[in-house]
């Protein structure tokens, strides 16, 4: 495998209510929180959901070369309903942002780790709920970036 190519990557934590988004620096070293998008609850079947449209706009705005979507694998390593939901979301996103690639990565425990780190910093309650999705996206993207560096 070759070294990680330069360019911004976006990390995405897909939830039922919110979508957390993080971005990397162009060198692929550090992930930082970017935004939390509200999930469109009942999109028309013939329309692209507004959260996908907003995410596609972030891809363009940040000139992202790849989007990394968290795949919620359970602790036994199996893909349950949440993983199937994330895969469907990633496919829909890929259709909208092509040719920018969408990569799935194991996000086991990312929200738990993000919540713990926020609590350690004194961020709790409503303040934590407002940023936990972004923090989970940071965990997903940072773990993926580090795995890519270990491979090279």
TrEMBL record:
Superkingdom to which the source organism belongs: Bacteria
GO cellular component, one term: cytosol
Segments forming domain YqgF/RNase H-like: 7-114
GO terms assigned for molecular function: hydrolase activity, acting on ester bonds; nuclease activity
Single GO biological process annotation from the record: rRNA 5'-end processing
Stored SUPFAM superfamilies: Ribonuclease H-like
InterPro entries: RNaseH-like_sf, YqgF, YqgF/RNaseH-like_dom, YqgF/RNaseH-like_dom_sf
Protein's name according to its UniProt entry: Putative pre-16S rRNA nuclease
